[in-house]
Amino acid sequence: MSVTKLFITVAVLLAISRDQVYSGDDQWFFTGNEIAVAYRFQQHYGARLRYPLKPEACLYGQEEFTASFQGKQFPAPCRFVTETIRHLREALESKAARYLFPLDLDYGRLGVPSELWKAKYSKLSGEEQLRALLQEPSLVALYHTAGHLEPEANTKSTAGENWQKRSLLGFYNGQPMKTFSRRSSEALASVPEGYTWLNDFKILAHYLGELQLVSDGAVVTFDISFDDDRAAEVSPKPVNVSVTSR
Q: Is 216 helix (H, G, I), strand (E, B) or coil?
C-alpha cells in the first residue's frame, strides 16, 4: 500500500469512528481537521521513508556526508541538508504549509535555470545529474502544499487560518523562499518560468526521523530521501515548464 493510500484509509477510519462527515466521500480531498488527525497518526505510528538520508557527519563540522540514490552511495554537500531544512522551516512558519506528509508538503523538485541545464547538465545520466546538481550554486527546489486540502475547506479549522494551495521556490544560496499562489484547485503545478526540473526528493515526518527543525516553538522530526518509496525505480527526466505565476 502506498503512503498516500495509507493516509486515506486512516482518515476514513478516524472520521467514521467519530461519526464525522468525511469530505463528501471524496477520496482525494480532505478537510483541514481530517488532515490534522492523519498527520498526528503519521508522526507517531506511520511508516518512515525506507532509505532516508543520514547526514550525521554534518553535525560534527563536516562539509559532506554520504548520500544514496537507487542503492548507490556518493558524497553530497551538507549545504543541501541545511538549506532544505531552512526551506521547510520557512514554509511552516509562514503557514504556507502545515505538515510534512503526503496530504500537504511531502516532496521537493530540484531544478536549475534552463540555459544552465542545456550547457552543463543535459548530457549527464540521472545519477550523474543528481551528484552534480547538489553542488550547483544556482540549484532551486520547488514545493507544492495543500494539494489534498478540500477546495472549500473551513479556514478556521484546527489546521489554522488562510491555509491555501501554494507553490514555493527555495534557493540553496541563502535567498528567502518565493511563494506562488495557485489560480485554481486544478492548478497543481504552478511553477516559475525559466527552469528545467529534474530529480525529486521525498519528505516525511516521523518521530524517529534523522532530521529536526524548530518551528514556532515546536520540534518537527522528519526524513528526506532521494528514493521514491512509491516506485520501484526513480527515473528522472528533464521537463521544461513555462507557466506564468502570480
A: coil
- Closest CA relative to residue 172, chosen from 119, 118, 108: 108
Give, in degrees to the nearest 5, the angle at Cα 136 between 133 and 141.
65
pLDDT at 3 over 60: no
Residue 206 CB partners (closer than 8 Å, separation 6+): 42, 43, 46, 47, 48, 49, 221, 222, 223
Contact 142/109 with Cβ under 8 angstroms? yes
Q: Where are the beta strands (DSSP E) in 3-139?
A: 64-69, 72-77, 107-113
Single pTM value for the model = 0.79
Three-class SS state of 145: strand
Task: Compare 64 and 22 and report the one with higher pLDDT.
Answer: 64
The CA distances from residue 142 to 123, 167, 242, in Å, are 23, 7, 14
Q: How many residues does the chain have?
A: 246
32/242: higher pLDDT: 32
**Residue 30 pLDDT greater than 90, yes or no:** no
Segment 211-231, tens digit of pLDDT: 999 998 999 999 999 998 754
Asked if residues 39 and 218 have their Cβ atoms less than 8 Å apart, the reply is no
Cβ atoms of 69 and 201 within 8 Å: the answer is: no
User: Minimal CA–CA distance to 211: which of 63, 103, 56?
Assistant: 56
